[in-house]
Write a structure and sequence with these properties.
The protein has one domain: Rossmann fold (3-Layer(aba) Sandwich), CATH 3.40.50. Helix content is 54%, strand content 11%. The chain contains 4 helices and 2 strands. It has a two-stranded parallel ribbon. Helix 1 packs across helix 3. The N and C termini lie far apart (44 Å).
């Protein structure tokens, strides 16, 4: 699947951010060993705006790791109507 690297990278970045991997790496290189686990993503809800091929694959991977998903598919016509009403 040609779009597989992007969903995998998305999930990897989510895990890295939740666990504080970059900060923990900096601390370890500075000689400090942090005994932290960071946030677990299992049981958390992942919000997806739109649900094309990439988002569907991100959702599939997230569901497989115990996350829940909430999907929002914005109605483009309604968004345009709201913007027109404001002007």
């Amino acid at each position: 699947m040609a779009t597989r690297p992007l969903p995998e990278s998305t999930i990897a970045l989510m895990w890295a951010a939740a666990r504080g991997i970059a900060r923990m790496d900096r601390e370890m290189r500075a000689g400090n060993w942090l005994r932290e686990d960071g946030m677990q993503l299992t049981g958390k809800t992942l919000g997806l705006i739109g649900f094309g091929g990439i988002a569907a694959e991100v959702a599939r991977i997230a569901l497989g790791s115990g996350m829940r998903r909430h999907r929002l598919e914005p109605d483009a016509k309604e968004v345009v109507r709201r913007r027109v009403r404001r002007t």
